[in-house]
Design a protein that fits this description.
CATH class of the domain at 44-156: Mainly Alpha
Helix content: over 70%
CATH topology of the domain at 44-156: Four Helix Bundle (Hemerythrin (Met), subunit A)
Largest sheet: none
Number of helices: 8
Strand content: under 5%
Length: 162
């Protein structure tokens, strides 16, 4: 028979925080939403700046023959666009950038991108076009077809996200 004993430590976190309380009160959330709404007039400009960075990264990747370093830079730009798309009221950019991220985030994906650089170009050009034309949602008929095709092409390569 064993002489072991299991001791369960006390959870002091709840005591130190004073119980379970919301981190932000309703008034703070309303102030944050109002601040975001006040900035919304800049969203198009900020998204355009992200597109310029992505185009520069894509051009550098082309010049470097899609080497790992250049694809990592492009991945960083696409990852930023993925995160900012919804914040800047461009959820379609989020979806397109997510597909590009999926394509180039793994070593296998980078190899696939080198074999099909036109798929990289198609993603970047699609993002540029939807931002330029202010197409924000996948419900747009052309956007829906484009998004479906790009996601299908990436899936067909068997590239799995990390």
């Amino acid at each position: 028979m064993s002489n072991s004993h299991v001791t369960k430590p006390r959870n002091l976190l709840k005591e130190k925080l004073g119980g379970v309380a919301p981190m932000f009160d309703e008034a703070a959330l309303q102030r944050a939403e109002a601040a975001l709404a006040a900035l919304s007039g800049e969203f198009q400009n900020w998204m355009e700046e992200e597109v310029v960075r992505m185009l520069e990264a894509r051009d550098a990747a082309r010049a470097a023959h899609y080497d790992n370093a250049s694809l990592e830079r492009l991945f960083g730009c696409s990852h930023d666009a993925k995160g900012l798309g919804s914040t800047y009221e461009f959820p379609l950019v989020t979806r397109l950038a997510a597909s590009l991220c999926r394509l180039i985030e793994t070593p296998e994906g980078k190899d696939a991108a080198r074999q099909k650089p036109q798929l990289v170009d198609a993603h970047v050009d699609a993002i540029r076009a939807v931002v330029r034309d202010g197409i924000k949602h996948a419900e747009h008929p052309v956007a829906r077809v484009l998004l479906d095709e790009l996601e299908t092409q990436v899936a067909a390569l068997g590239v799995a996200p990390r």
